[in-house]
Amino acid sequence: MIKLIATDMDGTLLDADHALTPSMRETILKLRQKGIKFGVATGRPMDSAVFGIPDIAELFDFAICDNGGFVYDFADGEIHEQFPLSGDLIREILDTFMPMGGNPVLTGPGKLYTQFEDFYNIEVRTHIDLEYVDVRSKVLDSHAKIIFSGEPETLARIEAYVHENPDPRYVAFYSQKELIEFMDPRINKMVGLQYYMDKYGITVDEIMTFGDNNNDLHMIEDAGHGVAMENATQAVKDVADAVCGFNHEDGVKRYLDQYKF
């Protein structure tokens, strides 16, 4: 019996305009009326998630943000943070990968700090305010993650370096085709989700998850019922229990409407 549904946002729950459709909203409300907990598990920081779904706290039970680094429980207001990267490590990462051409993106209170304007930064203008600064000057004692955006060949160089020079202090992965994120190796969306599940006594066989990119792998593979989008990477499809439609065709809604809860 499914007691909880967790879904990625961009490329999964949201449409091509990064918005929640009215029909999807109706489906969520119907599921919650049945007592099923519904929330998002996203790579976005909380401020960005709110821009994507303005009434997120009223519509959802929870939000797993920063790929599992933050867990927000809207029922009691709890905000749980786990395993951030130290400021010193972030500076090391910046010094290593900025010379390769990567454009760093750092989360701050209510905004993103970034070095240069590029395609990804234009895209996220619809989600959260941007400030163009020397990113290194904005590094605090700790952050959930550090992101690099860039052209495919730039990110390929970064990925290759990480693969050839593994560091036990961090992992790096694509969260979107224009983004590579660096986080503590103990963190992923499933880790954040597990914290929320433990709080409410929900087991993995009682959850359904939806995702499209490789930062969704853990929660798709570990869930009792993991669903990949038609537009998902092959790696996500390979570990999923089912594949639904495209995000721009309300694939999550269509799957939920036909599923026998």
Automatic annotation (TrEMBL):
Gene Ontology MF terms in the entry: magnesium ion binding; phosphatase activity
Superkingdom: Bacteria
Protein name, per record: Cof-like hydrolase
Record GO cellular component, one term: cytosol
SUPFAM superfamilies listed in its UniProt record: HAD-like
PROSITE patterns associated with the record: COF_2
CDD domains: HAD_Pase
PANTHER family found in the cross-reference section: HAD SUPERFAMILY HYDROLASE-LIKE, TYPE 3, PHOSPHOSERINE PHOSPHATASE
A Pfam match: Hydrolase_3
InterPro entries: Cof, HAD-like_sf, HAD-SF_hydro_IIB, HAD_sf
Biological source species: Erysipelothrix rhusiopathiae ATCC 19414
Transmembrane segments: none
